[in-house]
Amino acid sequence: MASESPPDMNVGLLMFIAHRSMEERIFAELANAGHRDITVAQGRLAARLAPEGSRITDLAEQAQVTKQTAGFLVDQLERAGYVERAPDPRDRRARLVRLTARGRRLADASNLIAARIESEWAAHLGAHQMRALRDALAQLREITDPYA
Predict the structure, then answer these.
(1) Phi-psi region of 64 (alpha: psi -120 to 50; beta: other; left: phi over 0)
(2) Is pLDDT of 96 > 80?
(3) Which residues form the domain of 93?
(4) Which percentage of the chain shows pLDDT scores above 90?
(5) CB 75 within 8 A of CB 118
(6) Average pLDDT rounded to a whole number, residues 20-26
(7) How far apart are CA 68 and CA 83, in angstroms?
(8) What is the pTM of this model?
(9) SS3 145
(10) How far apart are CA 135 and CA 141, in angstroms?
(11) Is residue 72 part of a domain?
């Protein structure tokens, strides 16, 4: 039987709790698989990388951190071999941060773990409710995600 959420818990907090649970499980499984050299802050920044790469200023804005913080996190990710800096083909003075092969493997592993967690959630909620949740969140993204 579905439990009711306390009346003082707003939808944002409920979404955050689910997000945090998934994030913690992903990082725990990555650590168990030998990826102990990536932090949550680094992972959150890396998750914002566009497929063709992103400028540090864009990453900072999207992650809502300073440019200096984003640069520091990128430096750490670069030292660990997850990202590289490359010239931006649209502006040779600028640099793009993009995933390396090691970074893509980590992203793929993270996505597989997330898919497994979603399957568990779907088994708990039922396929219909899970589909409705996904649809509702996708619609909400239209008005909440300026980077969509």
Answers:
(1) left
(2) yes
(3) 12-144
(4) 89
(5) no
(6) 97
(7) 17
(8) 0.87
(9) coil
(10) 10
(11) yes
Q: What is the CATH number of the domain that holds 100?
A: 1.10.10.10
Q: What is the pLDDT, as a whole number, of residue 53? A: 96
Within a domain: residue 40? yes
Q: What share of the chain is helix, strand, coil (3-state, %, to 5)?
A: 65, 10, 25
Residue 3 domain-assigned (yes or no): no
d(CA 131, CA 118): 11
DSSP string for 87-142: EETTEEEEEEEEE-HHHHHHHHHHHHHHHHHHHHHHHHH-HHHHHHHHHHHHHHHH
Q: What is the pLDDT of residues 108-122, one digit of tens each?
A: 999 999 999 999 999
Rounded distance, CA 126 to CA 50, Å? 32
3-state secondary structure of 47: coil
Residue 50 included in any domain:
yes
- 84: enclosing H helix or E strand: strand 83-88
User: Domain count of the chain?
Assistant: 1
